[in-house]
Amino acid sequence: MKRIFVVGCPRSGTTIVQALLARYPGVLTLPETAFFESVFGGIGQRWQDPDARRDPWYQRHGLFARSHGPRRLRRLESELLGLSQAPPWRIEPCIRRFVQLLDEVASSQGCEAWVEKTPNHVMYVDEITRHVPDAHFVHVLRNGEDVVASVVDADLIHPTHAFHGGVRHWVRRWNRVMDLQLAQLGGAGHYVLCLEDLVEQFDRQWTRLCAFLDFDPSLPLATVPHNAVADAAAEPWKHNALSGVVRPTLRKSENLFGPRTLEWMRSSLASYDDIRARVVHAQECGTQRPCAATFALAETRTPGRDRAFAA
C-alpha cells in the first residue's frame, strides 16, 4: 500500500494537489484528519508561536497520545468501517491502528494508495516518518504574499480559529514552513512542489510527481476525485479546489492590504523567487537534492522590519 501525505502551509494549494491525486485511478483520499496533530499536540510550539503553551511532561516524552488523538481515531473507525471499539492511548499502537484503518479502507475499495492531507502535518514529518513505513510526502509551496492574503481573506469571510492571528502571525508561520520544507528538499520520500509551477507547467510537473509516486502519467484522470476531499459546507474556502482541476489562482494582496502593510510584508517574507529557483533547480537535477550552494532563508529577509512595522 502506498501511503501519501500532502503537507504545507495552510492556503498553499494542498487541497488542489490532494484532489488532483484523488483523480488518479486506485487512489483513496478523505477529508483532513488532523490525526497526528491530535496525537502529539504542541502545534503552537512547533509553529514557534510566542504565546504557545507547553504540553505536559508525559506528552513531551512520548508516552501517551493526547486525548484528542484516540478520540479522533475512534470517530474515523466508526465513520469509515462502522466499528466501535476502545482506542489505544499509547502513541505507537494508536498510530498503527490509524494506518491499518486507511490501508483496510483503501483495499476494500480496490485502491493501491491513499492520500492523507492535513497542512499542519508539515510540523510532524519526523514523527510520521518514524511511525508510518514507506511514507511519501508531497510538500506544496506557494508565494508567501499570496498565502498570507488568502488566509486573511478567508478569515474575513469565514471566521475560524484556524486562520486567526493576522498578517504578522502568518508571515512568521509561512517563513517557518519554508525553513522546514526546504530542509526536506532531496530527502528520500519527499517531493517539493511549487503551486505556481504546477499551474504554469502542468504536464511537466504532473509527470515528475507521478515519477516520484510511481504512478503512470499516461493513465487518464477522472473528471472529479473518486472520494470526498473536503466538506464544502464546513470549509467553504476550499470550494474552488475540490474538483482537482488545476487553474491559476487569484492574487488578493493588492486589494486587501495598504502600501505600508505590503511593504513590511514583502520585506519580512523569505524570497519566494529564490525558494522557487532552488526547487526548480533540484527538479532539473533529477533528485530534488540541491546541486548548488545552499543559503539560509534568514539571509533573504530584511532584519528589523518587524520592529519598524510595530512602531
Write structural notes for this entry:
- It is globular and about 55 Å long.
- It starts with a strand and ends with a helix.
- It has 15 helices and 5 strands.
- Helix content is 47%, strand content 8%.
- By secondary structure, it is of the alpha/beta class.
- It has helices at 14-21, 35-40, 43-47, 57-60, 68-81, 91-108, 125-131, 144-157, 166-183, 195-200, 202-213, 253-256, 259-268, 272-285, 305-310; strands spanning 2-7, 27-29, 113-117, 135-141, 190-194.
- Helix 5 packs parallel to helix 6 (91-108) and helix 8 (144-157) packs across helix 9 (166-183).
- It has a 5-stranded parallel beta sheet, with helices on both faces.
Q: Report, as a whole number of angstroms, the end-to-end distance.
A: 54 Å
Helix/strand order, N-terminal first: EHEHHHHHEHEHHEHHHHHH
Pick out the low-confidence regions.
289-311
User: What is the global morphology?
Assistant: globular
Rg result: 19 Å
Number of helices: 15
Extended strand count: 5
The structure class reads: alpha/beta
Strand content: 5-15%
